[in-house]
Amino acid sequence: MLVIVLLCSWWHLAQAMQAVTEDMPPYNWRDEQGEMTGFSVQLLRALLVRSGLRLDEKGIQLLPWARAYQMALYQPDTVLFTAARTSERDKLFQWVGPIGPRAIWFWRLARRSDVSPQNLAEATRWRIAAVRNSASAQQLSLDGFESLVNVTDETDKFRMLRRGRVELVTALELGAAFHMRQLGSTLSELTRLFVQDAQYDYYFAVSRSTDPAKVAALQQALDAMRLDGSLERLRQQWLK
C-alpha cells in the first residue's frame, strides 16, 4: 500500500504544468529574439529546476491577461504570473510567493534636487508623465494631477523625464531600472521619492485544482532561494 501511495504521489508531481503570463517587462515579456525573459520568467524556471517539476511542451505562453487569468481559474496545473495577491483573488488560487513588492514609487532625476515633493499633494504641483488611457493615468487624474503629460508607452515616460519635459514619473523599482536601461542609462540617474501604492505583493498564482504538493514544492524552492541569497541576486541583476 505504501508503494502505491508513493507512486501516486510521484505521478502527480511528474505531470507537466502550463505557465501563462502577459507582456509586462521587466517581469515577463518576449525579447527581440522571440524568447521569453524577465525577472519572473527566470525565477519560475529556477523554481521548476529546484522543485523537480517541469512545463508542458508549450513552455511559457504569452497571452492577453484576461485569457491567461481564465485559464488559471479553470484549468489544472496552471501557473499565472506575475500576479498581485489581492483580497478579491486570494481564495481563487493557490499562491507561491511573495516574489517581490508591488510598490509603485514617484521618481525624479537625481540632478533635480529642486523637485522634492514629500507627499501626493506636493507632487501635484509638478508635471508628470503617464501612458495615455492607462490605469495609472486615470488614478493620477483622480489624485489631482492637472499637469499630466500623456505618452505612448512606459519607456517614453522616462524619455520625457530625461529631456526635462516632465519632472516626475511613477514606476515599480524594477520597471524604472528596466526602462532607464532601454534608454542607455541606469537607475542611478533617478531618485526615488515616496510610495504611490504598496498595498500588495507579487506572487505566482496557481490554479486551485492543482495538486497542493506541487504548490508546496514550488514554495519550498522559493524559500530556499530566499535563504541562500539567490533570489536577491536575481533581483539585483534586473536592477542594474
Automatic annotation (TrEMBL):
<feature type="signal peptide">
    <location>
        <begin position="1"/>
        <end position="16"/>
    </location>
</feature>
<dbReference type="InterPro" id="IPR001638">
    <property type="entry name" value="Solute-binding_3/MltF_N"/>
</dbReference>
<keyword id="KW-0732">Signal</keyword>
<feature type="domain" description="Solute-binding protein family 3/N-terminal">
    <location>
        <begin position="19"/>
        <end position="239"/>
    </location>
</feature>
<protein>
    <recommendedName>
        <fullName>Solute-binding protein family 3/N-terminal domain-containing protein</fullName>
    </recommendedName>
</protein>
<dbReference type="Pfam" id="PF00497">
    <property type="entry name" value="SBP_bac_3"/>
</dbReference>
